[in-house]
Write a structure and sequence with these properties.
Organism: Sinocyclocheilus anshuiensis
Protein name: Sulfotransferase
Strand order of the largest sheet: 5-6-4-7-8
Helix content: 40-55%
GO molecular function: N-acetylgalactosamine 4-sulfate 6-O-sulfotransferase activity
Shape: globular
Keywords: Membrane, Transmembrane, Transmembrane helix
Number of strands: 8
InterPro entries: CS_Sulfotransferase, P-loop_NTPase
Largest sheet: 5 strands, parallel
Order of helices and strands: HHHHHEHHEEEHEHHHEHHEHHHHEHHHHH
Number of helices: 22
Structural class: alpha/beta
Radius of gyration: 25 Å
């Protein structure tokens, strides 16, 4: 949340500045109100209807608003669509991915029949390759091996295709990059470049970046191409074209991807259906993944949502945060800063709302939920938990030290830390807002440390 610095002497001197300070307060209030929209069990109405530009925008008034929202929070089970409904929505997806995968493989893989000209470059039109130079280079190497990769089964040319064995699903700004980088060091783990394909939540709808309207959709085949380097190795092992040591390692490897939007982002339905579907989207990401690969495993790492909300302050210009805006323009500068910082996305911190949706289709033992605070203080312990969860092979002491002692990835930028602490009133409001959600999260996970109240932290 952005730090608001409004010069009170200037407010008294300028009527326009008084008006602007009200706008700033209203925007801050609006952030909570918009975030509360997702709390309504039927998503049809807001939990709180504000009086626009109300005269009383004091700190006490803001506290009352947030407390009012917190008292109305209810958690209700959603309706889970059946497979026939999902097949009607995603007919092509179910025609490509079989209902059963090859036995005795850790990853969900199958042989896909090829049609058409097999001499053509199968990766030439891949949209991931066009978007990422690193992917393009990998595809160029695979293209040269493509024809040799084909195998004839039952008189038909086929190739092996795979989906991930596990997903790091969230949350943003909670340590997913650090988990990704450490997991890459395990010899039995294969992770996609890039770290975040964002296919399930965005690119299959044609959304390249969060907040943009849909453009060209990324087909399922383009997503599956990302896993072809590992699929090729598995196929060679299955057909006896690899040494016994390589075969053993490849067949037991765990294929994964780490899109931090997978846990929470179902916003694409707004572009496709608007409000025509009523209360909720007809299906969520987890419904499709469960229908296609019911044995998948998921890792989520979370942090105190109040602390997570502080990070996007870096979007505000330093001259605003440091109070260096010219006096006659200070209120305007602050309002601009607030508008930029609305991107804090308070709803992403409502962890339990999304987790309950995932637990409506996947069993609890398929979800590993970690806290960033625990991971940061003892990465060796948290990585050991992940390795057991993914059923990975034992590591040498040297490799274990290499993984646990690796410097943390994607830490907060020094210039952002220099901005100073969050203002007390902002922290208080955020704490009040998230409290009922954190409490419910702790109940669901049977772990009081997920309240982040400071009294039940892990030691």
């Amino acid at each position: 949340m952005c730090v608001l610095k409004v010069d009170h002497e200037t407010q008294r001197r300028s009527a326009s500045c008084i008006w602007c300070s009200k706008v700033c307060g209203f925007i801050l209030l609006l952030v909570f109100i918009v975030a509360s929209y997702v709390l309504s069990s039927e998503r049809k109405t807001l939990l709180f209807a504000p009086y626009l530009m109300e005269e009383d925008l004091s700190e006490d008034a803001l506290r009352d608003v947030v407390r009012s929202i917190a008292t109305k929070v209810k958690f209700r089970a959603r309706r889970v669509p059946d497979v026939s409904e999902l097949m009607g929505l995603e007919e092509h997806m179910f025609s490509v991915v079989p209902r059963r995968f090859l036995p005795d493989l850790k990853n969900p893989c199958w042989f896909e029949e090829l049609h058409g000209d097999v001499s053509a470059d199968p990766y030439g039109s891949n949209l991931f390759g066009r978007s990422f130079r690193q992917i393009q280079l990998i595809f160029e190497q695979l293209s040269g091996l493509f024809r040799r990769r084909l195998t004839r089964r039952d008189g038909k040319l086929q190739r092996l295709r795979c989906l991930p064995y596990f997903y790091i699903i969230g949350q943003p700004k909670c340590g997913t990059t650090d988990l990704y980088e450490r997991l890459r060091l395990h010899p039995d783990v294969r992770l996609t470049p890039p770290k975040e394909p964002h296919w399930w939540t965005r690119k299959r709808f044609g959304i390249v970046r969060s907040g943009e309207r849909p453009h060209t959709r990324f087909p399922l085949d383009h997503y599956l191409d990302l896993f072809d380097p590992v699929a090729l190795q598995i196929q060679q092992s299955l057909l006896g074209n690899s040494s016994s040591n390589i075969t053993s390692t490849v067949l037991t490897s765990a294929l994964g991807e780490a899109s931090a939007s997978t846990m929470w982002d179902n916003n694409a339905w707004l572009y496709l259906h608007g409000n025509s579907t009523g209360a909720e989207p007809p299906s969520l990401v987890q419904d499709l993944i469960h229908a296609l690969q019911p044995d998948a495993r998921f890792i989520a790492i979370l942090r105190d949502p109040v602390e997570r909300s502080e990070l996007p302050r870096q979007g505000c210009p330093n001259w605003v945060l440091e109070g260096q805006c010219p006096e006659e323009f200070k209120c305007v500068c602050v309002c601009v800063c607030v508008c930029v910082c609305v991107q804090v996305r308070l709803q992403v911190g409502l962890y339990v709302v999304y987790l309950l949706d995932w637990m409506s289709v996947f069993s609890r033992d398929q979800l590993l939920v970690l806290r960033l605070e625990d991971h940061a203080s003892n990465p060796e312990l948290s990585m050991s938990r992940i390795f057991r969860f993914l059923r990975l092979g034992a590591l040498s002491d040297q490799r274990q030290r290499q993984i646990s002692k690796r410097p943390a990835s994607n830490t907060r930028h020094p210039s952002d830390r220099d901005l100073g602490p969050m203002r007390p009133i902002t922290r208080e409001l955020l704490t009040l807002f998230y409290a009922p959600f954190n409490q419910r999260l702790a109940e669901v996970l049977q772990d009081e440390s997920f309240t982040w109240d400071g009294r039940s932290e892990h030691t």
